[in-house]
Amino acid sequence: MSENNGKIKKMMIILSKATLENVYAAFVLANGARMEGIEAEMFCTFFGLEAIHKKKMEHLHVATVGNPAMHIPTMIGGLPGMESLATYMMKKEMDKVDMPGVGEFLEILVASGVKIWACKLAMDMFHYEKDDLIEDVSDVITVGDFYHKSQGEGVHMLFI
Question: Which of 48, 124, 125, 127 sees the fewest Cβ atoms within 10 Å?
Answer without folding.
Answer: 127
